[in-house]
Amino acid sequence: MGFLDVEDLKVYFPIKGGLFNRTLGNVKAVDGVSFSIEEGKTYGLVGESGSGKTTTGRAIIGLNDITAGKVSFEGKDLTSKKSKTSAVRKDIQMIFQDPYSSLNPRKRVLDIVAEPLRNYEKLSKQAEKQRVGELLEMVGLSPESILKYPHEFSGGQRQRIGVARTIALKPKLIIADEPVSALDVSVQAQVLNFMQDIQKELNLTYLFISHDLGVVKHMCDDIGIMYKGRYVEQGTKQDIFENPQHIYTKRLVAAIPDIDPKNREAQKQFREEVQREYEHSYNDYFDNDGLAYGLQSVSDTHLVALPEKG
Amino acid sequence: MSKEMLEIKNLKTSFRIKDNYYAAVDDVTLTLNKNEILGIVGESGSGKSALAFSVMGLHNRAKIEGNILFKEHDIANISPSKLNKLRGEAMAMIFQDPLTALNPLMIVGEQISETLILHKKEMSQKQRKEKVIDLLNKVGIPMPEHVYGQYPHELSGGMRQRIIIAIAIANKPELLIADEPTTALDVTIQAQILDLIKTLKDDIDAGIILITHDLGVVAEMADRVAVMYAGQIVEIADVHTLFDNPLHPYTRSLLNSVPNTQEGQEELHVIQGIVPSLSKLPREGCRFAARIPWIDDSAHEENPVMHEVAPGHFVRCTCHNHFHFPDESKEDSTHGIS
């Protein structure tokens, strides 16, 4: 049993309409996803918009209802109704994408960071202030800023306030949903470095959700690639980047702009090659509905969605 | 061979905040050649979009000083009616967010026709429709007759951006400004759109200004690159020189903070401090000095100007001669041009 196990997770959103607002069908946002994360590791969940990566993250933390499947964290089942309010929830926290809209503009930093503490721990005003000060210091902000409002901070600083709130309850697992995609590259570097530092310091496990393969390659140990609610490939960082097997993964890897203008021609050729292969062998990789097949293992760590060999 | 088609001289675009004017673009001098892609990179707040909007004449409240010479006109001092003639015909713009740039209540065919109605009055309705279908074909939209009658919300993000591009190239503009054209798109769609822009460049023989914060996009697309910081251009060079031998401390820091997809490095470089806000910009001295405090003040010029260090390679200020990253020794940094 692992640290976090997700088994055949399904999240469907009903399509309502017609007479009496009946359910006419379902949007299968997440359609049978399984993976597990080891303690202290960073697991990257990659996909384009609409692939279901965010929904998967939100379902694990309980922000979306799970239609079917099982999520267990340190052996405890998170899908049962009881666990919604239980202490397990404290161990899983989330970092949101947009540091501009995820902080309440009318609250002071003190109230923002102390909110989770007020929910789970009974602290005196004095102790609370001190804890918030410590947390801010940990994320590299001066403790004097507790009385300021979010608009007084830059994007990178705001994201760090968000992180301070996230680590307030000493979580074990952090779900980071596109934590840097709203930030400039230099600020992005700051937040990524910082996330790695606190990971070592607090022995954190990350579920890192992103569409940016460059960032994912920098941060993650294991990677899962999602497409239309299903997994197309899963493996270690080396498996995915050096030996991608599924045509969709290849397309994603080929689409990353190369930072060296000398490779321009080579990159263009590579991309065209992959595009040809994609058009030529589309039916070998996707079923009649354009969805990925079930995962088959190609090595100990590497799983690829391929049709079952008949 | 290379022909200048746009010349920007000492452009200064200022905005009024209360009673003072603050320059978002300060002393920018640039040229753009025919059939060339000039990349402009910088972080948010560096003034790259303000520069683009000035060239298109879209800032009606701002104070614009200097010259923007394009087709015997100076866009910095031009009458609105003349400007309207140029816009949409000789120059056009591709916007960042294709959803907000399109009218949600109008079918896309009519939105593309609009620019033809304005600039090609002699066309009959039938000719116009043919031309629009032809444009939709050109930007790679499948079933153009069907898409002609669709509304923007029926199309995906990549398709919408193709519509925007179709509008921009409808009258074969000589100057095309693309402001973060792929930032709102997924990476596989981004690759397709960039490819399309490149093909069209050769097709209509336009000069393109490509504004982006993504160094990877610039590396793939641009012929020349200008790096902007705090309203000024700090370095300009052809794309190979800029990536092989970046000189200005800002360019070097920026390149070092990108997670490299080729090799795994442990720590990313972080630029200290933040981009100063418009009202807090230092008006004198090197604007980047505050973010590299470990470099001695004497390394900076009092009034930094652009120096031509090699043919076509310009760098602002002299601090690049003495620059090194805080964790490397000084010896490594004196790598001038050999």
From TrEMBL, chain A:
<dbReference type="InterPro" id="IPR003439">
    <property type="entry name" value="ABC_transporter-like_ATP-bd"/>
</dbReference>
<keyword id="KW-0813">Transport</keyword>
<dbReference type="InterPro" id="IPR027417">
    <property type="entry name" value="P-loop_NTPase"/>
</dbReference>
<dbReference type="GO" id="GO:0016887">
    <property type="term" value="F:ATP hydrolysis activity"/>
</dbReference>
<comment type="similarity">
    <text>Belongs to the ABC transporter superfamily.</text>
</comment>
<dbReference type="GO" id="GO:0055085">
    <property type="term" value="P:transmembrane transport"/>
</dbReference>
<dbReference type="GO" id="GO:0005524">
    <property type="term" value="F:ATP binding"/>
</dbReference>
<dbReference type="InterPro" id="IPR017871">
    <property type="entry name" value="ABC_transporter-like_CS"/>
</dbReference>
<dbReference type="Pfam" id="PF08352">
    <property type="entry name" value="oligo_HPY"/>
</dbReference>
<dbReference type="Pfam" id="PF00005">
    <property type="entry name" value="ABC_tran"/>
</dbReference>
<dbReference type="InterPro" id="IPR003593">
    <property type="entry name" value="AAA+_ATPase"/>
</dbReference>
<dbReference type="InterPro" id="IPR050319">
    <property type="entry name" value="ABC_transp_ATP-bind"/>
</dbReference>
<feature type="domain" description="ABC transporter">
    <location>
        <begin position="4"/>
        <end position="253"/>
    </location>
</feature>
<protein>
    <submittedName>
        <fullName>ABC transporter ATP-binding protein</fullName>
    </submittedName>
</protein>
<dbReference type="GO" id="GO:0015833">
    <property type="term" value="P:peptide transport"/>
</dbReference>
<keyword id="KW-0547">Nucleotide-binding</keyword>
<dbReference type="InterPro" id="IPR013563">
    <property type="entry name" value="Oligopep_ABC_C"/>
</dbReference>
<keyword id="KW-0067">ATP-binding</keyword>
TrEMBL record, chain B:
<protein>
    <submittedName>
        <fullName>Dipeptide/oligopeptide/nickel ABC transporter ATP-binding protein</fullName>
    </submittedName>
</protein>
<dbReference type="GO" id="GO:0015833">
    <property type="term" value="P:peptide transport"/>
</dbReference>
<dbReference type="InterPro" id="IPR017871">
    <property type="entry name" value="ABC_transporter-like_CS"/>
</dbReference>
<dbReference type="InterPro" id="IPR050388">
    <property type="entry name" value="ABC_Ni/Peptide_Import"/>
</dbReference>
<dbReference type="GO" id="GO:0016887">
    <property type="term" value="F:ATP hydrolysis activity"/>
</dbReference>
<keyword id="KW-0067">ATP-binding</keyword>
<feature type="domain" description="ABC transporter">
    <location>
        <begin position="6"/>
        <end position="255"/>
    </location>
</feature>
<keyword id="KW-0813">Transport</keyword>
<keyword id="KW-1003">Cell membrane</keyword>
<dbReference type="GO" id="GO:0005524">
    <property type="term" value="F:ATP binding"/>
</dbReference>
<dbReference type="GO" id="GO:0005886">
    <property type="term" value="C:plasma membrane"/>
</dbReference>
<dbReference type="InterPro" id="IPR003593">
    <property type="entry name" value="AAA+_ATPase"/>
</dbReference>
<dbReference type="InterPro" id="IPR027417">
    <property type="entry name" value="P-loop_NTPase"/>
</dbReference>
<keyword id="KW-0547">Nucleotide-binding</keyword>
<dbReference type="InterPro" id="IPR013563">
    <property type="entry name" value="Oligopep_ABC_C"/>
</dbReference>
<dbReference type="InterPro" id="IPR003439">
    <property type="entry name" value="ABC_transporter-like_ATP-bd"/>
</dbReference>
<dbReference type="Pfam" id="PF08352">
    <property type="entry name" value="oligo_HPY"/>
</dbReference>
<dbReference type="Pfam" id="PF00005">
    <property type="entry name" value="ABC_tran"/>
</dbReference>
<keyword id="KW-0472">Membrane</keyword>
<comment type="similarity">
    <text>Belongs to the ABC transporter superfamily.</text>
</comment>
